[in-house]
Amino acid sequence: MRYILAFATLLFVGCTTPSYPGIDSPSGGNSSIDQQIISYIDQRLLDEYYWLDEVKEKSPSFNRYVEWEDYLDGALRLLTTNTDDGYTKNDQRHFYSFIRQTNGSTRSAKSGFGIALHYTIGLVSRDKQQYAFYIDYVYPNSPAEEAGVKRGDVIMQIDDRNITQSNYIELFNRIENSTSNDIRLSLYARAENDYNDRDFVDVSLSRAQYEETTVIYNEIFNLNGGNQRVGYLVYTGFDSDYDDDLISTIEMFKDEQVNEVVLDLRCNGGGEVTSMVKLCSALLPATYEDSVIAKIMRNPKNKKIRESSTFNLKNTGSLLNLSRLTVICSENSASASEMVVMGLRGIDFPVTVVGSTTQGKNCGMDVSRKTFGSVSVEYAPITFMCFNAKGFGDWGEGIVPDYDITSENPYGLIEETYPRPHSNWGDEVNDTALAVALATISGGAVTTTDATRATAQTFEATTTIPKPITGMLLYEEE
């Protein structure tokens, strides 16, 4: 039996397990551990926070009789000069600065199902208060991929349980954070050979080891009779742990004589400056060697690092020698993702942006990790502002795309629910953003169809929940 799905969105509220980035669960009291971690938060705010002057002024009024998970957010809300630390959505303030519990395990070794969920919840039945989850992407060689689960599939039930307002947080974590050993998913899945044919499929998964990576997908497209060899790379985070995966993919592009690249950053919330520099260096020709790709500036009263820092391209021309770059972005693209675009524009390297307006995070953080008794935390307050080689850093409202697929554009394609996933990676017919990106390179018509756009609108949505913004990270200390 088929359902007619009318999807609306449900804004996440409440708390989840500590492994759900950016939202931490209470520890159950203002214990000595709470007090130690709060002191640690205070110390870095006073010494390094970009708006430390106001912290110093208002610190005596901060409420320190709370659990540590609640302290940072409460303190930052009392400030008025830190408007660039975060954004407002649905009349609620969200901060980029974060502190969260971490298990301290290696980031590459992963035991789980291998599913990353989109931060939108769909409304299936208003009467029954039944919801659904969208699958943003599936990790290569994970249990989910081996079972045939795909980006764009919709999860309707988990272990025969409907997703409701009372259990969606628990079930979200069971899937994305793999908090169970086994799970059965009822999917509203796209047929393998027919995009517009969906049906209900049950899939059983058992958690297993797989190698997590931020290089989720790659493919090579031949345009204009093979004269344009386009490397397509889906990159979900600037993480130096996976730099080898990134560079090996670009090396493969070189071996395959790729002369154009579409860099898909629509699911990329940022990450490490060094990885951003390495990526840009691998794409550009030797004429850009030692060019400034990014500058950062801290508060001159910063007690740890006072001086500004400049990041230069190194070893350009050793891999690809692009003459331009096409980037796919969305509201979930932030920080280091935005710095790729603005940094290249700062050296007058041609960049075309397709998708929707980006997050607008023109600041970054220095991350530290520390253990208090049995609690290990990762702490990243905003400590610097970002600029390109021309001294421009005013993209706090986001980078407006050259081709906005959420509104009027030269190709006449409008996908109002973008970036909510509705097709698999590399689908140049049914992925509107990819279709437009390839058309801007080839100079030809977009190959996507009216039926594709209709399918994209089947699941209605009025807003999306941005994925946690990683930020531009610099030093790490234990």
Helix tally equals 10
| Share in helix | 10-25%
Q: Which structural category do the helix and sheet elements fall into? A: alpha+beta
Biggest beta sheet attributes: 8 strands, mixed
Counting copies of identical and different chains, the oligomeric state is: single chain
* Overall 3D form: globular
Q: Indicate the mean pLDDT.
A: 85
Ranges where pLDDT stays below 50 over 5 or more residues in a row are: 1-28, 450-468
Radius of gyration of CA atoms, rounded to a whole number: 22 Å
Number of strands: 24
How far the N terminus sits from the C terminus, by CA atoms, comes to: 54 Å
> Approximately what portion of the residues adopt beta-strand conformation?
25-35%
Describe the structure.
By secondary structure, this protein is of the alpha+beta class. The chain has ten helices and 24 strands. The strands form five sheets. Strands 3, 15, 16, 17, 20, 21, 22 and 24 form an eight-stranded mixed beta sheet that branches. The longest helix is centred in the N-terminal third of the chain and has 16 residues, at 32-47.
Spell out the key features of this protein.
single chain; 478 residues; alpha+beta; eight-stranded mixed beta sheet; six-stranded antiparallel beta sheet; 24 strands; 30% strand; disordered N terminus
Please specify the SSE layout and strand pairing:
Layout: H1 32-47, H2 52-58, H3 68-76, E1 87-89, E2 92-94, E3 98-101, E4 109-112, E5 115-125, E6 130-138, H4 143-146, E7 154-158, E8 161-164, H5 168-176, E9 182-190, E10 198-206, E11 208-211, E12 215-223, E13 228-235, H6 243-255, E14 260-264, E15 270-272, H7 273-283, E16 292-298, E17 309-312, E18 325-329, H8 336-346, E19 351-355, E20 363-372, E21 375-380, E22 382-387, E23 403-404, H9 432-442, H10 450-456, E24 471-477
Parallel strand pairs: 13-14, 14-18, 15-24, 18-19, 19-23, 20-24
Antiparallel strand pairs: 1-2, 3-21, 4-11, 5-6, 6-7, 6-8, 7-8, 7-9, 9-10, 12-13, 16-17, 16-22, 20-21, 20-22
Helix pairs in contact: 1-3, 6-7, 7-8
